[in-house]
Write a structure and sequence with these properties.
404 residues, mainly alpha, 66% helix
Length: 404
């Protein structure tokens, strides 16, 4: 006998509460512990409301406890992971000198392991000056702009797909997958949002929009590169070679426009801080050291580092071959393929954190919040929601709905 929907949602909120409670007990970081207490209260209230049949009240309680209260408290009190200050420092350096990286960093907190696009999210704090009032903290905190980038991208993706509002999306935001990074750092959320937007634009037959979103993602972190291959493959199989090439050119051109100035101005620092530091090859060891397979192998010695890099390359090659042999034909399939590729990369990277795995989970769950059950999201042949010039085209009656 299957569980009722109410029982499943109640169990889900209780599971989220148990996960949140592990942070006050196990985490050494104060922002994580505070989030854990607030989120656990919100999730428990959500479970109680769900059991009473008050689903909207449950969702509100979860969003309040896991997102609104801890985020505002941490922002207004100036607490958070070091990534927040790193992004804001990049914005300040960009505004003051046109540079992005500290020259010759001697400590972990002086490294900026992000590409130049991330500095744009730190510009608001720099533009607001050196004040420390609550308005400056609220409007200047990088987490607020990371959240804005995420939600703006998800909203734009839904509009491109013409998807109806789904209660699953607010639930996804309230879940630990989004709520925890949103409250304590926010650094990976813009990347996730832009990847979702690129996938949505590709599914809707908008190659230039997809390429622009990919350029934005690739200008934040180089881990966005697998998204380019997946999105281009989706466009190629569903729309043809020309839209796929247009997307690839837009992505390459936009990335170059955003990244090359910083690379030309500080080539050595960009290599040291963006590539060598995250992979454990810089003078200062990276703090990303969760006991994932790649990190454990790299810890065995220099040969271990080369072995895990080889395994990482083989994993990337396997995903690339899968795109050639069996390219994704739907939005969900493309999101799942990208999630699989990123999961393999994070597991096999020489240095990584468990928190990185939230990105592939978010991609896989998000794609299902914008897909109507029973309606295909693949575009092949003449069965398209819109042609490349924006005109509506044929509807495939066998699928039961428009193709997107």
């Amino acid at each position: 006998m299957t569980l009722s929907r109410t029982a499943r949602w109640t169990a889900g909120w209780l599971l989220a509460a148990a996960w949140a409670l592990s942070f006050p007990l196990l985490s050494p970081l104060e922002p994580h512990r505070l989030w854990g207490w607030c989120a656990a209260c919100g999730y428990l209230a959500a479970a109680a409301a769900t059991a009473l049949g008050r689903r909207r009240a449950a969702l509100g309680a979860a969003l309040l406890g896991a997102v609104a209260v801890p985020l505002l408290w941490l922002v207004l009190t100036g607490q958070g992971q070091s990534e927040v200050r790193v992004i804001e420092r990049s914005g300040r350096l960009l505004l003051e000198s046109g540079r992005l990286y500290v020259e010759g960093p001697a400590a972990v907190e002086e490294y900026t392991p992000y590409l130049p696009g991330m500095a744009l999210l730190g510009l608001p704090r720099a533009l607001l000056g050196g004040g420390d009032g609550w308005v400056v903290r609220l409007l200047g905190d990088a987490r607020i702009w990371c959240a804005a980038a995420l939600f703006g991208s998800l909203w734009a993706g839904r509009r491109l797909l013409g998807a109806a509002r789904s209660p699953l999306l607010p639930a996804l935001v309230a879940s630990p997958v989004v709520a925890l990074p949103l409250a304590v750092s926010g650094v990976d959320l813009p990347l996730a949002g832009l990847c979702c937007l690129a996938l949505a634009a590709a599914a809707a037959g908008r190659p230039v929009v997809a390429g622009a979103a990919l350029a934005g993602a690739c200008a934040l972190k180089w881990t966005a590169l697998p998204a380019v291959a997946v999105v281009v493959a989706l466009l190629a199989v569903c729309r043809g070679g020309r839209p796929a090439v247009r997307c690839a050119l837009a992505a390459a051109g936009g990335t170059a426009l955003l990244v090359l100035p910083g690379a030309l101005l500080q080539p050595g620092e960009m290599w040291r801080q963006v590539f060598a530091f995250p992979t454990g090859r810089a003078e200062v060891p990276t703090p990303a050291g969760s006991p994932l397979p790649g990190h454990l192998i790299a810890e065995l010695g220099s040969w271990g580092w080369y072995l895990t890099v080889t395994l990482l390359a083989m994993g990337g090659l396997a995903v690339a071959l899968s795109l050639l042999v069996r390219p994704p034909r739907t939005l969900v399939a493309a999101a799942d393929r990208l999630a699989i590729g990123l999961t393999a990369a994070f597991l096999l990277a020489p240095a990584g954190r468990f928190g990185y795995l939230a990105l592939p989970v978010l991609l896989a769950l998000w794609s299902r919040t914008v897909t109507v059950p029973g309606v295909s999201r693949v575009v092949t042949g003449s069965a398209r929601l819109r042609s490349p010039d924006g005109r509506p085209e044929a509807r495939n009656e066998r699928s039961g709905g428009h193709f997107a």
